[in-house]
Specification:
Elements: H1 41-44, E1 45-46, E2 57-58, H2 59-71, H3 75-88, H4 94-105, H5 109-122, H6 127-139, H7 143-156, H8 161-173, H9 177-190, H10 195-207, H11 213-226, H12 231-243, H13 247-260, H14 265-277, H15 281-306, H16 311-323, H17 327-340, H18 345-357, H19 361-374, H20 378-391, H21 394-404, H22 409-424, H23 428-453, H24 466-473
Antiparallel strand pairs: 1-2
InterPro entries: TPR-like_helical_dom_sf, TPR_rpt, Ycf3
Pfam families: TPR_1 (PF00515), TPR_11 (PF13414), TPR_19 (PF14559), TPR_8 (PF13181)
Keywords: Repeat, TPR repeat
Length: about 475
Amino acid sequence: MKRTISLFVLTSLIVGCGGSDAPKQVNSPQKKPAATKANSQSQDSASPSTAKSPKRVTYSQILKASDELLKKRDAKNALILLTKAIQAKPNESTAYVKRAAILADAKLFKRAISDMNAAIAIDTENPKLRNTRGYFLLLLKEYDAAERDFNKAIDLDREYPQVYNNRGLVFIGQDQHIKALNDFQMAIKLNPEYVDAYNNLGFVYLQMEDPDYPKAIETFTKVLEIDSKYLNALSNRGRAYLKLEQFDAAIADFTTAIEIQPENDQYYLHRSEAYKAAGNEELSKKDLQHVVWTQRLNEINRRIANNSKNIDLWIARGRHMLLNDRIESAERSFDNAIALDGKNVIALTDRVKLHFSQGQFTEAADLCTKALEKNDSTEIRSLRGNAYLQAGKLDEAIADYEACRRFDSLVVEAYRKRAEQRAAAGNAELAKIDSDHATKLEQQLSSQSAAEEKPVPPRAFVPVNFEKEAAAEKPAVN
């Protein structure tokens, strides 16, 4: 069965252990209030100004248009439309509630609460509005005010499971665990497949003064029977297993959570702890290194967000991605750097090397050619020679090596391969020229290497008379 879907996508309340392990908070879908009879045409319609047409639109059409904008993640213009709707019909609650949802999603909770105040003043007997405002107050940790809203919502509708769940979160925030247990159990009684309430109940078992780990595991397992990808339950059950020293089970839960959401560092930290407790220091260290890698990536991304035209940042991001074998992301980063400056030798070199690592030699050569059209660089031409060599284009490779005046083992390889190629084609004379040239280069390389590796004879040991030296350096006394 599908989980209850919240109208509001909001961050979790952090209680005690970390964001990823916090109880899941759920707000209920908004109940549409009854329509009020219009007094005049001006009240029935609104007219957001447009350049194309002065046609008046109705209140409901504005609401529908704002919903369409939200589907496109255009919250800014959705807010503008909802404000126009409120101005057109200030005594209708729906636009206030919709605008509050957008504000809350942007973490502007006080402004969201202000809109909910207006909505509740219009529709005072709507329990869902009380629940929604209470939820925003809960996120601000204004527990007393939140509890008052939840109590009122329960008075208005005693069979409303979400409000019991949310009031239970208030009690968790105040360390009133028995009250929290009672509320989550009531929410589950009203909705036996309410996964969020089950997860929060399990969380209370973990947080009590005398934690009940077996009961917590049983409760989180119930959540996962309903929704196998419920991340909070996986992580929380893993922590319970860890407390009971059931390391394999804990590692399995954290690993599953990582597979579902690999960008979440919290699961790597938990698994690192479990590996360490199980005595596997190597894997524990590997998970910690991943966390450090992610933190560095987040820092690079933050800097790019502030300065997206900085080539060095894109290059740094590409190289960082390669440390974790994120090939496609590295490619995109280097491509972004090259798009900013097609002559940048560092970006081009890194991108060509990446082509090499993927066996894409023709693509590497083509990229170098494009770069050389803008800037005749010895480094890029040398790289293109390597790409031609790997692609079997020996004439082109040797031409680039000669233009660069290169003198190394790859040049020797290019001449030897071309000698073989010419011999196979019946060009014995040309083959001999290449073979002789390769042999000559190889001998020169060997001589150079021997000279560089020739050991330096040790200096002869000369004994030192330290007393005599000290006396000689002693200043004369006048």
